[in-house]
């Protein structure tokens, strides 16, 4: 665990860049040791977390295979058959004032630690990022087969990573994670209102009627179909349905996912 910041003083905007610079230097300083250790314990997973634990810091982990291992305080695929070669939490004595650009963190870790064959990526972020930056950060990781994301739908995720994975099939749009077969969502919420919006989107349009804006769930279904058409069919969508006000509607949507 590493700590940056000034105790008892609220950092100003100028401190944010200083935090990030220090942390990126820290990542680079560890690189020779991480690369040496990974020769015997190959790194199979990377997790990056922005505003970890409600905003009091950033975290990144490097995971290795260890059959039989179990962690009660982890969720998703890192909870089982995994050891952590590195687990770094960045906190500040001033609580929620550490600001790290998650994509800068991700790219520095990947570059300095030579992570060119990772299989699992877990990304938990609290803010949206530009689509072009997300594509640049993720498009080279063809070995990734499992992606773990935060709650869905989520206001920060929808304009960011989800749009990159499940965007309309626009000319020149790269296929991110072509070997992806599993998406693991920490929590999913599907409400009766979501069902009504999805049904409305499926109705034929009257002459001159503008199509409704896509909802997160309709975008997901369309994106899954597009990935299937491009030879990248998803096999597993794992999500604990934490919020629902209509269990039958949720069951109907699960059936749509399966088809």
Give the helix/strand layout.
Layout: E1 2-3, H1 13-40, E2 43-49, H2 52-55, E3 57-70, E4 80-91, H3 102-112, E5 120-124, H4 131-138, E6 146-149, H5 161-165, E7 182-185, E8 188-189, H6 192-202, H7 216-229, E9 236-238, E10 241-243, H8 247-258
Parallel strand pairs: 1-4, 2-5, 5-6, 6-7, 7-9, 8-10
Antiparallel strand pairs: 2-3, 3-4
Helix pairs in contact: 1-3
- The tally of beta strands, per DSSP, is 10
Computed CA radius of gyration, to the nearest angstrom = 20 Å
Give the percentage of residues in beta strands.
15-25%
Helix content: 25-40%
Spatial strand sequence of the major β-sheet: 1-4-3-2-5-6-7-9
The chain-level mean pLDDT equals 77
Protein model, in words:
With about 260 residues, this protein is of the alpha/beta class. It contains eight helices and ten strands. An eight-stranded mixed β-sheet has the order 1-4-3-2-5-6-7-9. Strands 8-10 form a two-stranded parallel ribbon. Strand 6, helix 5 and strand 7 form a beta-alpha-beta unit. Helix 1 runs parallel beside helix 3. The termini are far apart.
Task: Provide keyphrases for this structure.
single chain, 36% helix, two-stranded parallel sheet, eight-stranded mixed beta sheet, 259 residues, alpha/beta, 10 strands, disordered N terminus
Sum this structure up briefly.
This protein is α/β, with parallel strands linked by helices and 259 residues long. The chain has 8 helices and 10 strands.
């Amino acid at each position: 665990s590493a700590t940056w910041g000034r105790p008892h003083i609220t950092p100003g905007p100028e401190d944010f860049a200083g935090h990030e610079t220090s942390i990126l230097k820290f990542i680079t300083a560890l690189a020779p040791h991480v690369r040496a250790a990974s020769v015997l314990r190959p790194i199979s997973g990377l997790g990056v977390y922005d505003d970890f634990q409600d905003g009091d810091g950033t975290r990144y982990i490097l995971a290795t295979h260890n059959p039989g291992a179990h962690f009660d305080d982890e969720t998703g695929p890192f909870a089982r058959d995994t050891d952590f070669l590195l687990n770094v939490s960045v906190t500040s004595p001033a609580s929620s004032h550490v600001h790290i650009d998650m994509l800068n963190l991700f790219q520095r870790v990947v570059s300095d630690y030579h992570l060119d064959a990772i299989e699992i990526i877990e990304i938990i972020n609290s803010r949206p990022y530009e689509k072009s930056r997300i594509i640049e950060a993720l498009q080279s990781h063809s070995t990734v087969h499992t992606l773990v994301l935060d709650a869905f739908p989520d206001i920060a995720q929808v304009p960011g990573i989800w749009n990159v994975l499940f965007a309309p099939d626009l000319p020149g749009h790269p296929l991110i994670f072509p070997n992806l077969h599993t998406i693991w969502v920490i929590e999913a919420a599907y409400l009766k209102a979501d069902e009504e919006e999805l049904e409305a989107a499926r109705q034929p349009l009257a002459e001159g009627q503008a199509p409704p804006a896509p909802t997160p769930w309709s975008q997901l279904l369309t994106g899954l179909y597009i990935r299937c058409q491009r030879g990248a069919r998803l096999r597993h969508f794992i999500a604990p349905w934490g919020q629902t006000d209509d269990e039958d509607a949720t069951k109907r949507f699960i059936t749509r996912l399966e088809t």
